Amino acid sequence: MAERDSNMPSVPTYAGTVAPYALSKDPSSDGATVLSVTPDSPAYDIGLEPGMRVLTVNGKPLTDMIVWLWETEDVEAEIEVFDPRDNTVASAVIERFPGEEWGVDFDGVVFDGMRTCVNACIFCFMNMLPKESRSTLTIRDDDYRLSFLQGNFVTLTNMKDPEVEDAIDKMLSPMNVSLHAITPECRRKLIGRNAPRGIEVLERFLEAGIEIHAQIVLCPGINDGDELLATLEYVEAHPGITSLAIVPLGFTKHQKRFTTSYSDDVEASRAVVKMLEPFQQRAREERGCTVFQLADEFYIDAHLPVPPAETYDGFPQFYDGIGMLRSFLDEVESVRAARSSEVARVSERLGESSRRVLIISGEAAQGTFGAFCSMFDADVIDVFTIKNKYFGGNVNVTGLICACDLLGQLPADLTGIELLIPDVMFNYDGLTLDGLARDEVTAELEQRGAIVHYATPAPNYLLDALA
């Protein structure tokens, strides 16, 4: 690499910090920090090492992974690299064979600071957190790049025209967009004064052919009823919106605006299910897919069976809670058929050792985990439901269980108990939402006499943990 002397690059401002799965750990510096380099790869061959920073690619500042993917799609690219050991910048041409990986990993996907939210959404969960919550939980990201790269939902209200044009030029598709409502009055009430910009950008994306996965957070008495009907008709008239997820309002005790939601009203939940049925039917007839999807909570709250798997269109919004319940139940039946001998061995092992397994669950998933337990001999495995007192309100999902509730509600004596704890309780760094490390949770439970297992909350993984 040809070197030229340079002072350390200028420092951009950084909007906030979130989990390292998305954002660079070194946002105070230009470029992308190299996290690792694969031996004998193109990156290795030109001398890239962990800790260096790639500043530009083909003359473009490396601000995010979109720039990297766009500029390095061919077999060679010119890059500038900053070496912190001697504060020099060197340029090099990195080359590869067709189809070969570049062999470099960066420490995130967004390197120049996150685009934060400019809205005042009345249902924003970040504004309902306890005051003592760590700062990384209260960052309100609304970055269109994370929508494309990570599947985050964004409102598009903070996008400037050059960013819109760049997204269209690069065809950043699909994009996940928080729609919530379509009438201007309702959108302003829900989102704030920037709401019109979101629809303007959305329609520019649709016109350009960018596929949209949309979302509605349904708030009783605000964007339901006729407002929901108007939004459904808008989506039906725009085939570029290939899926619409409708999720119920979630609220905590740390706010004063909401006191009820669909979890408290069976008939209201059933009314939402019924409203969607003709839209779903027409979509299947005209588009060949369901398009209009309800969060699993609606079926739980309405005391109705979840739809069959084929109605979920391949689960495009699975991680928005759309179809997780159906997927789990179907996988239980698959495990029951394909792994019956392992299920029998676990039952036998537990019976011989006089041990019992307790699967930790939020209130919403109690019946779902119960389906997994039904495969085993009676009395060897059961669900232990944790009530979320830390957040309160209607928060009842397993992924939001906090250590204080887990440790506070489990018995003091856990001798003879194997605990099966879903790993969704912990973040990338192994912390619960109230800040306790997984090792600390394990140590406390083992001190009470328990054997502790952690697993992804899916039947095959749960069985793996026990087997």
Automatic annotation (TrEMBL):
Pfam family, one: DUF512
Location of the Putative radical SAM N-terminal domain: 99-243
DUF512 domain span: 247-448
UniProt superkingdom: Bacteria
Record protein name field: DUF512 domain-containing protein
Organism taxonomic ancestry: Bacteria, Bacillati, Actinomycetota, Coriobacteriia, Coriobacteriales
